[in-house]
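[User] At your convenience, examine this fold.
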Amino acid sequence: MASLFILLSSLHATATMAPRMYSIMAQFSGSISESTDAGDNALFNHKMSFEALYLVRGGPTFGGRYIIEARNDNESTSGQAYGPMAGFYSERGYFVLVTYDVLAKLGRWTNGEGFEVDLGYMEHIGDQIHVGVKYSYRKMRYKTDIADSTAVQKDVAEYFPSLVLNYLF
């Protein structure tokens, strides 16, 4: 992942984000993480998100996001979340985004909420297409366990890298 970041940043030192002053942007990002635990059990955590953003070149960005994920930390679960996001894309390709997921579900856990902070870099590769990488911190709190009414809550905090593809309209 680090070598991809170095390659993208060396392609063009002054990447520009958009040919226009403002744009509507569709952004897709994905993360695949596979490892083993102490007992040699296979673990995975896959995420895919779709973001629709209003981009002002060299200014504020805001929009919304929908994310789906599959993981098997303690049990196989899948989930989804959505919420508003805001951030900043620099004219050189660097960006920061903050998302607040207002409603999230993960396996039997529902009524979740939390935030994610993304730091990344994008490189212009076509008329309206950009590719890049981002590193994210996500912290979620799920408040309701539909299988066990005595369960208090489940907190999930994680760091993960992602590949990013976006299209400017």
About this structure: Confidence is low (pLDDT under 50) at residues 4-8, 10-18. The helical segments are 2-11. The longest helix spans residues 2-11. The beta strands are 22-36, 42-56, 60-71, 77-89, 94-106, 109-124, 129-145, 154-168.
